[in-house]
Design a protein that fits this description.
The protein is of the alpha/beta class and about 425 residues long. The protein is about 30% helix and about 25% strand. The strands form five sheets. The chain has an eight-stranded mixed β-sheet, sandwiched between helices. The protein has a six-stranded mixed β-sheet with strand order 8-2-1-12-21-20, with helices on one face. The protein is globular and about 65 Å long.
Length: about 425
């Protein structure tokens, strides 16, 4: 992936209206929508643009199955996706191809029916399809599915293209983008943000947006701000060019996949995500326990070197020396070959057209999750001027443009396109 850097001399501006920490899809989109409003923006990224989960996700852009709190934002985001390539003059790989969720038992079907009741008020074009409909749409598939949730207006996009494209156009419009530039922390005056300190120097600002994904909780801890957030590891593979099974993005318990622009597929296990046991697991256990109980069948707990690594990572550090963010420029976890082996076997078994498919690459990403799997997009009350856009819980790519626009509205005080209340930080501390 090409690094994006706006300043050859690496000289930071003395001041900016807004400093954004993290150049994933949400940070890049926020920068783009802010600069369009005439706001001066500096976008700082410790590694490379879109280097972590924004380029490592499945590429689904979906309304169906969303938490009800996210539905208005994904509807707005889909509107943006549909016209984004034309608007910015850059290819983001979006295709309105539809999404299938396939159910093999009545419990899944009941969950889909419950979701349809929530979504009814939004007039989304989702419907429940029968086994006969599935056979017509997926000829040759061998799964014993009894129903499917289908949304024709959903789609897919290319994670490797989207965040860099948004960052490039933001840079052309005037956003100062600095890669390999970790933000070590913030300084305050009179109880509010007055500047950020980066490894390249200081930038005066009274408005900061932390869109740092899996790193956000650690950054907040440096300033005494409590953000309950954990990380889970998702392993993914891509195939070489393969026969077209369907243009739809597909999810089943056994395997999830979507067609790529290069003629191959991005593939993952539909119901296997690793949850590393780390000190934060113990710290936030009470808040995450309901989510763990609900998702225990798909979570695979893992105790490995990450526990010791995170135990030894400082939660406070001086701003005049290296921070933990400079030690790991790009978080690049090893994928689980066991999980990917299961996913590949399931793909070949359920979709015989792909029995000879070649696996050409595997990778993994760390997903930032909150206790209710809903993001935080909010001002931080205890530190005026500091804002969060994080905790997207594996849903961030699809809602990325909409979340970035919402964050820009929050920072400028513009009327919000959706209700911000469900995304407040305080919800985790209400009794």
């Amino acid at each position: 992936m090409t690094n994006i850097q706006a300043s050859d001399d690496r000289k930071l501006p003395a001041r900016a209206d807004v400093v954004i920490i993290g150049a994933g899809i949400v940070g890049a989109a926020a920068a783009y929508y802010l600069v369009k409003q005439g706001v001066s923006v500096v976008l700082c990224e410790k590694g490379r643009v879109g280097g972590e989960q924004s380029s490592r996700n499945w590429g689904f852009v979906r309304q169906q199955g969303r938490d009800p709190a996210e539905i208005p934002m994904i509807i707005e985001s889909l509107k943006l996706w549909r016209g984004l390539s034309a608007e910015i003059g850059e290819d983001v790989g979006f295709k309105q191809s539809g999404v299938f969720y396939l159910a093999d038992d009545e419990e899944q079907v009941a969950a889909y029916e419950d979701w349809l009741e929530h979504a009814k008020q939004y007039q989304i074009d989702t419907r429940l399809m029968s086994r006969r409909d599935i056979d017509q749409r997926l000829p040759g598939a061998t799964g014993h599915w009894i129903a499917a949730l289908h949304t024709p207006s959903d789609g897919r996009a290319e994670p490797s293209l989207a965040a860099p494209a948004l960052a490039r156009v933001a840079g052309r419009l005037g956003v100062k983008i600095f890669t390999q530039c970790a933000v070590r922390g913030m300084e305050t005056e009179a109880g509010r943000v007055s500047s950020v300190v980066t490894e390249l120097g200081r930038i005066r600002t009274d408005t900061v947006l932390c869109a740092a994904g899996a790193w956000s909780s650690l950054f907040c801890a440096r300033h005494g701000i409590i953000l309950p957030q954990l990380k889970v590891r998702s392993s993914v593979l891509r195939t070489g060019p393969a026969p077209l099974v369907t243009e739809h993005a597909i999810w089943t318990r056994d395997v999830a996949f979507r067609r790529r622009r290069d003629g191959g597929y991005t593939v993952a296990h539909g119901a296997a995500t690793e949850a590393p046991i780390v000190p934060d697991t113990l710290r936030w256990m009470s808040k995450f326990m309901p989510a763990f109980k609900a998702e225990r069948q798909r979570l695979r707990l893992r105790l490995d070197h990450r526990f010791y690594t995170e135990l030894m990572t400082p939660r406070r550090w001086n701003l005049d020396g290296p921070s933990p963010f400079e030690e790991t420029r790009v978080m690049n976890p090893m994928p689980s070959q066991k999980i990917l082996g299961e996913a590949a076997a399931n793909l070949r078994r359920l979709f015989p057209q792909l029995k000879d498919v070649e696996i050409v690459e595997t990778w993994a990403g760390m997903i930032d999750v909150t206790p209710d799997a809903v993001p935080v997009i909010a001002a931080v009350a205890e530190l005026p001027g500091f804002h969060l856009a994080t905790g997207f819980s594996g849903h961030g790519f699809g809602i990325g443009p909409g979340a970035g626009k919402l964050a820009a509205e929050m920072l400028t005080g513009a009327p919000s396109t959706v209700d911000m209340t469900p995304f407040c930080l305080e919800r985790f501390f209400e009794k």
